[in-house]
Amino acid sequence: MDSSVFIIFATFILLFLSGFFASSEVVFFGASNTIEEKNKSLYKRLLSKIFKDPKVLLVSMLIGNEFVNVLISSVSSSFLIKSVGKKWVFLGSFFVSLLIFLIGETIPKNIALILKDKLLKVYAMLYYPYFLAIKPLAYVFVVPVEKILRLFGVQDISLEKKFSLDQIVYMIQSKDSLEEFSQEETQMIQKVSQMSEVIVREIMTPRLDIFMLEANKIVKEVINDILEHEHSRIPIYKDTKDNVIGYIHIKDLMPVYQHKDDTLEMFLRPIEFVPEVMSIRNLLQEMKKSSSQIMMVVDEHGAISGLITKHDLLEWLAGDLPQEWEDEDEFSKISSDVYIVDGSASIEEVAATVGFELSENYDYDTLSGFIMANMGKIPKEGDEFEYKGFKFIVDKMDGKKIEHVLIKIPTDKEPNS
């Protein structure tokens, strides 16, 4: 074979190797086929070994790429001097550099960027023998680099076992991984991956369903409504519902509502506004930044269109949040004259079942509201009172919420059921 043909052939082989090393970085660090130790396929076991120390992996790629590029320059320079003479060497070197840039760098990296997932298996098989051979030399370079970085205050951030969100989702969706995750867990992680695509409008509480109060309302006039709705944070508006000026937290009202005729405006906390087209991911970042639990949602015209809370986000991710009383009967008869009843039970059903009459102008819907209205406070476990001969004992509380109530029927009366 003619020496010129051999040199040209060798140069293109070296260019191919340069492209292989350059594209390896994109394939290994960008592909979403996540490494999984428990997977028995050969290529994933190889990937696991290759990724054991990502810093060494990266240095091995740089060593290979630089070494091949130096060889290309040396071989081509020698060939150019013999072929065109020293006069045209500069032009020839520029042409070789252009080939390295295009064939050895740009084109392979762009191809790898598009086909990285499909190329990963092939690259793992091809790269592993070279990686084993070059690893000792790569370690020699890694140690001084780490020391130099520390001198500049750069912390050592290991890439091991750190994957992108897309990689995690791929792992969850892979055939082997599905056996290790429940359907609910898989759906939750898939939802996390969709957080950039889902917007606030899709999960917010619509305006018509928001419990809001006017700022000039007196605390004692609305306390029963507040307790009935069982929300700890309530938006407050002035004049119109499009003019939300803040929110109140129920715990701020409790020490004073029995004794003062203060307006709700005196207990205002600032509230933030977000556009309804904001992504859930950005919303979560905003809530984290501001430590907000509740935000008002506005449409393109600045009008209130809904309300969003961290609770709404959790429900979107995990489904309806379970509540202990939902799976239990509201009424349980534990003896001939004693009932245990859920605080959320309808007060009309309780009265009809147990056998007492309600006052004509009551303004509560549940047993909890009935108890708070009669006691004039949020009770504690063990608190009790009598109403028309019936004894009501608070059996269990969950924070400020009445969970269960014991009702003792007078000896001279019989329950209706």
Outline:
By secondary structure, this protein is of the alpha+beta class. Helices cover 50% and strands 16% of the residues.
Features:
417 residues, alpha+beta, CBS-domain, 13 helices, 12 strands, 50% helix, elongated
Q: How would you describe the overall organization of this protein?
A:
- The model is unreliable at 33-39, 157-161 and 322-328 (pLDDT under 50).
- The protein has helices spanning 3-30, 42-50, 54-84, 89-151, 165-173, 175-178, 183-193, 219-229, 250-253, 280-290, 310-318, 347-354, 367-375; strands at residues 205-206, 213-214, 233-238, 240-249, 272-275, 294-298, 304-309, 331-335, 338-342, 384-387, 390-398, 401-408.
- By secondary structure, it is α+β, with helices and mostly antiparallel strands.
- The protein is 50% helix and 16% strand.
- α8 links the parallel β2 (213-214) and β3.
- Strands 8-9-12-11-10 form a five-stranded antiparallel β-sheet, covered by helices on one side.
- It folds into four domains: 3-151, no CATH class; 163-193, no CATH class; 200-318, CBS-domain, CATH 3.10.580; 325-408, Uridine Diphospho-n-acetylenolpyruvylglucosamine Reductase, domain 3.
- It is elongated, with a radius of gyration of 35 Å.
- The chain has 13 helices and twelve strands.
- α2 packs across α4 (89-151).
